[in-house]
């Protein structure tokens, strides 16, 4: 588990190896991650977008941008949290992800980014 706080927003990440399979004669390694976004600030905030940088040990880095998380743009009052689980496929048993959430503070109407800390993805059978 990794954690980081940016502008009063705490991000906690847990990762899980889901398994491997072959697709088009290439190995695919499935990873899941659960993220909890906790508002430790005194203002209500909304998550509007996400930016991911995905590292695969065997491929070039991939960048993914999109609105919200899992089709939602959660509003978090002070003390509230939002948890979701998502995943990614890699072509190797090792990789990593990091990024940020684009958010807006409802009190100040200012937009700000919240860092998603670097977290590693590794299949247990590949760790020595």
Automatic annotation (TrEMBL):
PROSITE patterns: APAG. Pfam families: DUF525. Residues 3-128 form the ApaG domain. InterPro entries: ApaG-like, ApaG_domain, ApaG_sf. Transmembrane segments: none annotated. This is Co2+/Mg2+ efflux protein ApaG. It comes from Algibacter mikhailovii. The gene is apaG.
